[in-house]
Write a structure and sequence with these properties.
Keywords: DNA-binding, Transcription, Transcription regulation. By secondary structure, the protein is of the alpha+beta class. The chain has two domains: 69 residues, Arc Repressor Mutant, subunit A; 138 residues, Chorismate lyase-like (Chorismate lyase, 3-Layer(aba) Sandwich). Helix content is 26%, strand content 32%. The protein has seven helices and eight strands, in the order H-H-H-E-E-H-E-H-E-E-H-E-H-E-E. The chain has a six-stranded antiparallel beta sheet with strand order 3-4-5-8-7-6. A two-stranded antiparallel sheet has the order 1-2. The longest helix is centred in the N-terminal third of the chain and has 15 residues. The termini are far apart.
């Protein structure tokens, strides 16, 4: 099992990220300069810059030489970066709710190659219907190793799973994604309140920790019919 210890740069990254998503730092506004932040967190400039680079990789901020570090507005965030549905909409004042469709424990089976575990190792398997401002937005179907998340229960599933991973002491590093077009079958059409046969997207995520341990495999089916990304230089 991973050693559950967060580095200084990770702690700074998470604190600044929370300040951005909560609106403490406003879109298009500047963050405090490096001297102020180094003093606040009692770290070297190198450590601080690594944390800010992580924010840049998430699409949360961008820098202008000689002008400082600026907060990107929510519409500039990459929709498929490592932020949960809850995190992506928090700064917009929108409400995200989850309905647990099922929660069970299953053997790893044919997911052994993804998790690098024996076929008999237990996984938590769950599915949720997620609502944005009261309207169905996506359905997820996920697996997580029980040995990493021993206290994961059905109540946990009503919040952000990325935030839950972090509260368990894991630092999420990256996400390998496969995006494919599908058409809605009867089950998905009913959950997303769309017509059967509607073209939509399924995104499969394999989420890794900084130590290259797979924390989650999740398939998300959304009723969004296009993928938007924007970049800031």
């Amino acid at each position: 099992m991973e050693e559950k210890r967060m580095t200084k740069q990770d702690a700074i990254y998470h604190d600044l990220k929370n300040k951005i998503l909560s609106g403490y730092y406003q879109p298009w506004g500047t963050m405090d300069n490096e001297s102020v932040l180094c003093k606040r967190y009692d770290v070297s400039r190198t450590t601080l810059q690594k944390a800010i680079q992580h924010l840049k990789q998430d699409g949360l901020v961008h820098s202008r030489q000689g002008a400082g570090t600026f907060v990107n507005p929510p519409e500039f965030f990459n929709l498929y970066s490592l932020r949960s549905l809850s995190e992506r909409n928090a700064a917009r004042g929108r409400t995200v709710e989850s309905k647990v469709l099922f929660y069970e424990e299953v053997p790893c089976g044919n997911l052994s190659d993804i998790f690098h575990l024996g076929s008999d190792e237990p996984l938590v398997h769950y599915s949720r219907q997620r609502f944005l401002d009261g309207k169905p937005r996506l359905v997820d179907n996920a697996y997580m190793p029980r040995y990493l998340f021993r206290n994961l229960n059905e109540e946990t599933l009503h919040g952000s799973m990325l935030s839950y991973m972090e509260t368990c002491g894991y630092t999420v590093s990256h996400d390998l994604q496969t995006i494919r077009p599908i058409v809605a079958d009867d089950h998905i059409a009913n959950l997303l309140c769309i017509q059967v046969g509607t073209p939509i997207f399924q995104t499969d995520h394999v989420i890794y920790s900084t130590r290259n341990v797979v924390l989650q495999f999740v398939s998300e089916i959304s009723n969004e019919q296009e993928i938007k990304t924007q970049s800031v230089r």
